[in-house]
Input
Amino acid sequence: MLRQLALGRTNRQIAEALVVGEETVKTHVGNILAKLHLAHRTQAVIVRTIMYQGCSPNMYRS
Output
């Protein structure tokens, strides 16, 4: 799901790619944001990018 977000896909595009309903995507995106304590999907993409690079997201918090 995070990879799909990182690719800039809409909820509808993600739903089609994963063969699930758009509401399911909305639920999962909301759960991801809540678990990561984020407000926007763009922030989730940044966290995913940091994780992919092997860095800790906490390094960038003040």
